[in-house]
Design brief:
- The protein is an alpha+beta fold.
- The chain is built from 9 helices and 26 strands.
- The structure holds adenosine monophosphate and magnesium ion (MG).
- Magnesium ion is lined by residues 189-190, 259-260, 266, 307.
């Protein structure tokens, strides 16, 4: 009897448990920290904004000076100072207005800004007519309204993105302590594989195909902050496979392979890993992606992805990606699924949990790519994501399904 396939959630939990120890740290320039995982929480040594400031170009006033004449009547005030952004403000003399610009500090005593569209400068700007009575506090951004003094702004385990890099800069950080880059050795197996660029389409030998996995795997690894050693294509021979794995295991955190991990005579990955180390996981109850393997060779982790391009793409997204994020100490590694309405039928239930390539339709429902074969990479390029469909489940148009976006999976 065949051993039951490992449920995907169990496999993922096992991988995450094995993603230890977390990689060491390095301090990098914030400009180079996009996509890296922060390892030290950041606490603010100041408040942001540092002082009350204007959110409009206009005039700073004391509301009481305007209200005296009654709200319906426009007031005329002398302009006592001009405060551009970046300049200090003097206290606002009673009965006067200050010309003020966006981002400039609000003078002491002023309690509202009137936007310039509601004002008329008079006498070449010496005086101003205020045509709208402001509510107290109007158009004033309060000191500390974004960040209070001592607030934790970013927590360890955050994957840094453009907004968090900007936020770190707003509290004065120019360098950040992040996980060092995972070192990943990548190779493809398959005697049928040739490299685009090496062989033109009109000279493809019979039975040959281009190595597509190498391109998307390398791109996905880069996006996850990895330093990639690309070992190219390894022939379908036991000795060559063992040798490639052995040499890669010395200086890498992860060895990632594609192809050769099934049960055919030309599939040498599994026995080669078992010769050099241990195999902990093999064959997952998912479609596509069943022949995924995980093991250890010396100090290196090993992950074998199936050769079929979509299987490789999906197992990378759902297993390798969370593992690499966990290895970098990321707090949040699992992709988010959202409940969406299916605009398609999927009448054939499968015994395995399926990941169907879909995209958004104009009606906000999901459309399914016609050919869901694991060899059809067009489905992944066409799609906006996958529907995570439980084992044994059919889908009818109008059903609520779980959608996982490629925007999440490939970030
Ligand atoms: P395998 O997992 O080695 O049995 O390969 C399964 C299928 O995926 C076969 O049709 C292979 O030709 C194809 N395949 C394997 N590796 C690649 C690759 N790097 N690029 C594109 N197709 C591949
Ligand atoms: Mg093969």
């Amino acid at each position: 009897m065949r051993a039951p396939l490992k449920p995907l959630d169990d496999a993922l939990a096992e991988l995450l448990a094995r993603a230890v120890p977390v990689l060491g740290v390095e301090t990098v320039d914030s400009f180079d920290a996009d996509g890296r995982v922060l390892r030290e929480s950041a606490t603010s040594p100041l408040q942001v904004p540092p002082a009350d400031n204007s959110s409009m170009d206009g005039y700073a006033v004391r509301v009481a000076d305007l209200a005296e004449g009654g709200p319906a009547i426009a007031a005329e005030l002398p302009v006592s100072q001009r405060i551009p952004a970046g300049s200090p403000a003097q206290p606002l003399a009673a009965g006067t207005a200050a010309r003020i610009f966006t981002g400039a500090p609000v003078p002491a005593g002023a309690d509202a800004i009137v936007m310039q569209e509601d004002c008329e400068p008079l006498e070449g700007g010496e005086r101003v007519r205020i045509n709208a009575i402001p509510a107290p506090g109007q158009w004033i951004r309060r000191a500390g309204e974004d960040i209070t003094l001592g607030a934790q702004v970013l927590s360890a385990g955050t994957r840094l993105g453009p907004a968090s890099l900007g936020l770190a800069a707003s509290i004065g950080l120019a360098r950040l302590t992040v996980s060092r880059r995972p070192r990943v050795a990548l190779f493809s197996t398959g005697d049928e594989l040739v490299m685009p660029g090496d062989v033109p389409p009109e000279r493809m030998p019979p039975g040959a195909i281009y190595n597509s996995n190498r391109f998307f795997l390398r791109a996905m690894l880069r996006r996850l902050g990895c330093e990639v050693t690309d070992l190219g294509i390894v022939p379908d021979r036991r000795d060559a496979t063992v040798e490639a794995l052995r040499s890669a295991s010395a200086a890498h955190d992860l060895i990632l392979t594609s192809g050769g991990v099934s049960v055919g005579e030309e599939d040498h990955i599994k026995p080669a890993v078992e010769t050099l180390g241990e195999l902990h996981l093999w064959q997952i109850a998912m479609k596509p992606g069943k022949p995924f393997a995980y093991g250890r060779i010396g100090d290196a982790h090993f992950m074998g992805l199936p050769g079929n391009p979509v299987s490789s793409f999906v197992t990378f997204s759902l297993l390798v990606r969370p593992f690499l994020l966990a290895l970098q100490g990321a707090a949040d590694v699992a992709p988010r699924a959202m409940a969406v309405t299916a605009g398609f039928d999927w009448p054939r239930a499968d015994r395995r949990r399926e990941f169907l390539r879909v995209r958004w339709g104009a009606d906000g429902r999901l459309e399914r790519f016609g050919n869901q074969s694991s060899g059809v990479l067009t489905s992944a390029a066409w799609g906006d994501g996958v529907v995570d469909n439980p084992a044994g489940q059919t889908i009818a148009r109008g059903d609520t399904v779980r959608f996982i976006s490629f925007a999440d999976l490939l970030s």
